[in-house]
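Annex B. Sample input.
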Amino acid sequence: MISRSILSSQLGKGLELSLAFLLTVVLSRGLGPERYGDYVLMLGWLSLATLLIGLGLQESLSRHLPGIVAAGYAPRNLLYFTLTIRLGLVLLLAGLALSLRTPLFIWLKQPALAPYLGLLLLLFLFSQIVHLGWNYFIAQFRVGITIATNLARNLLLIGVTGWWWRQGGLTLELVLRLLVCGYALSALMYLAAAWWQHEPDRPDWPWASSRRVIQFGLPVWGIAFLTFLLADQTDILLLGTLLADSSQVAYYQVGTALVWKLMGVITVGSHMVLTTLTTMQERLGPAGLAQSWQSFIKLSTATVVPLYLFVALFAPQIIALIYGDAFAPSARFLRLFVSLMLLPVGLMGGGLHLLTLYVWERERLALALRLAAGLLNLGLALLLIRWWGAIGVVWATGLTALLGTGLELLAVQRLRRQPYPWSFALKICVAVLAGGLAVGWLPVDSWLGLTVVAAIYGLVLLLAFRLLKPLTGSDQQLLNQLDIRLGHMAGWFTVAS
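Annex B, continued. Sample output.
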């Protein structure tokens, strides 16, 4: 069940993030660099507001809900508990924002955003319900509900915004109104699905256990805040405040968004990883967690490294084809960022090690590691923005990701050594370098040219994988559990035992 849920989640998430990326393309081309930069800044402030009221409740759902279900309880009360807290904090923060709206936007040096405060608060409200609903169903491996809900929202938004763009009437206010409607629809779908999840043969989760949920969530909340200092939203807010140039914000966001979207499509989501690691630890003990840990490392390496290298090679052409000439400055952001993130995300596991510390209930150690990395990123960003402008943020984020991921990996290995797949990683890198040498010199000036180059690159990778055989017998068995056809295909790339 877990293997199939992960596969279904990945397919659904890939489609969902692809549609979300398509939406950003429509919005960026429809609004233009300056207005799209304002839109990105608004989303950045909403992300910060979400963090301020988070309390680690989403992570608590992912961590505790599998155990609650395994103990025989109906989990719906846990969702109601987290929703009550989250919505109360939303109302409190909204009241403060409305009472301080004029000095707030002056202090932020972004008075042009003030007229949209009401729409932003509505979007803030509905998005909190969506976030908790998503975690609630993912933690039960009920990925079909999350896929259907998010796809419905994205398809609606793409269709309507695309039509208005073609009509030449796409405005920032209209975009925000459509987002409010889309998230309201998703919130209603999640609440209805939770209400219909009636399990009369199971006792309700006892409210008295809520203390454990809060105790776990608070240190994770601190970690989330520090992680925010490492993410692109912090960089966007710093650029908007220090440079006061919405176009630079747009160029940065377009250049880095493709990397984040690719990361989301080709790696398993953090909450699915946390739920899987927790479940395997409870079922099989340390051996089960070690097996899952190595599988996730291999998945990241086999997917991230080939794609990131290809994007780095053809960054200018990709930006021109997707976003148009107006966003040509974004190409250097994309090439630098994808190159810097290749090692920490592709070969070092990204955030996998932090989630492993969660499973071991070493939240304080995780908090200390993220504190060091978050402060480093903030300091580097403040310094490098003044020296190099917007490109300095890319250097700050990439270097901090490398150092922070390295420290988290070291911490996991010192606590309980996990089997890193060195041979697998080396073979993947050799295959990817062969593919890069084969296509890096080819000219690309159209979608057809990019498709042909990508096909040649993929063919070289397949031939190299066939020769190097990076997979082992245990990898083939795992793929057999996902789908028997995947297991048969893996036999072509599996070393003989």
